[in-house]
Design brief:
The protein is built from 17 helices and 2 strands. Helix 3 crosses helix 8, helix 4 packs across helix 7 and helix 16 crosses helix 17. The protein has a two-stranded parallel sheet with strand order 1-2. The protein folds into 2 domains: 167 residues, no CATH class; 104 residues, no CATH class. It is mainly alpha-helical. 51% of the residues lie in helices and 1% in strands.
Length: 337
């Protein structure tokens, strides 16, 4: 390798706010050719959901306009598999009304050519509303087509490179304080942040403020003996009566139960996410191993015996549902702590 990958990526720590967008395009080429696929996919995903980049649907529409016929069909197949079959007739002028739902929804390059970027943008917006996890799936898809990713522009590429730099730094065990207004989420919040990213829309406050630190002097509410709760990850934003449009929509409650139910239906797996933290993590395509659950327990300040996995699992599930409710999710009371 003719350059130091770590040194190159370190220039983009902090989301690439101070990076040169023009240079980012050239650097992205080098990084895409020399990075593990998982790291590249994570970087692209962060660019798709970051508050520093255009909305998810807009970027998908832009990449669609720059894709070749096969790439366009691939994008559509990813999006269509995450839209309820009953809604397929309401998008793209009803072109997909006769398609089956889920992974059986397949279109050809010829069919993809009939859509405009604006129609694909609408399709992406609906897919994200129904299943926020589509952002990760599209990130994985685009990581397989890095030349296509370059068409989203240098500023967005700088965000992707910054996310990859954070991941590399975390894997190396380094610890650099992050700015309070970090909007990339996930990395700073660990597993709980990953859960938020999978469930909430990309610009929901729980996601965009996932890296925000609690105010100085803030104290957690009293907890039962042997357990210690933590305050909500992000404060619930206030919505003024005059708030309208996309900003107001982000402050509306997200129906967590409905989103997870839709994911369950599309997964084709029998997963009891309502009571099992293991199944919940599996449904979200997150690491459900004992080690991962112990890490989640540490994030949530569990003080019980982590070797008693049964008790820990019950506590974790209740705590995760409570945190989702505290951060803008509509969660049935019986699932919360």
């Amino acid at each position: 390798m003719s350059f130091n990958l770590g040194n190159l990526l370190n220039q983009y720590l902090g989301g690439g706010a101070g990076a040169n967008p023009a240079q980012a395009e050239n650097d992205f080429d080098h990084v895409a050719q020399n990075s593990p696929f998982g790291a590249l996919a994570q970087g692209v995903t962060q660019a798709l959901r970051s508050n520093q980049t255009p909305p998810f649907g807009q970027m998908v529409g832009q990449m669609f306009s720059n894709g070749n016929p096969e790439q366009r069909a691939g994008m559509l197949n990813q999006l269509l598999s995450n839209i309820n079959p009953g809604m397929l007739s309401s998008v793209a002028g009803g072109l997909f009304g006769n398609l089956p739902g889920g992974d059986q929804a397949k279109v050809s390059p010829e069919q993809a050519a009939q859509l405009s970027p604006q129609q694909v943008q609408e399709l992406a917006e609906k897919a994200e509303q129904q299943n926020p996890g589509i952002v990760e799936r599209m990130g994985d898809f685009y990581a397989q087509h890095p030349t296509l990713v370059k068409t989203i522009g240098g500023a967005a590429l700088a965000v992707a490179l910054g996310a990859m730099a954070q991941r590399m730094q975390g894997n190396a065990g380094a610890s650099t304080p992050q700015p309070a207004n970090n909007t990339q989420g996930g990395n700073n919040m660990g597993i709980l942040g990953d859960i938020f990213h999978k469930i909430f829309p990309s610009r929901h406050p729980a996601v965009t403020q996932a890296g925000t630190q609690a105010p100085a002097g803030a104290a957690p509410a009293p907890a039962p003996a042997g357990q210690q709760n933590v305050p909500p990850v992000a404060p619930q934003p206030q919505v003024t009566p005059a708030a309208t449009g996309p900003a107001a929509a982000l402050n509306q409650q997200v129906d967590v139960e409905q989103i997870l139910t839709n994911m369950q239906a599309q997964s084709g797996q029998q997963l009891n996410w309502r009571t099992s933290i293991v199944d919940l993590l599996k449904l979200l395509n997150l690491d459900s191993s004992l080690q991962a659950r112990k890490e989640l327990a540490a994030e949530l300040h569990y003080t019980g015996d982590t070797n008693d996995s049964a008790s820990m699992n019950i506590w974790l599930h209740k705590q995760v549902m409570t945190k989702l409710a505290q951060n803008g999710g509509k969660v049935p009371a019986d699932l919360q702590d």
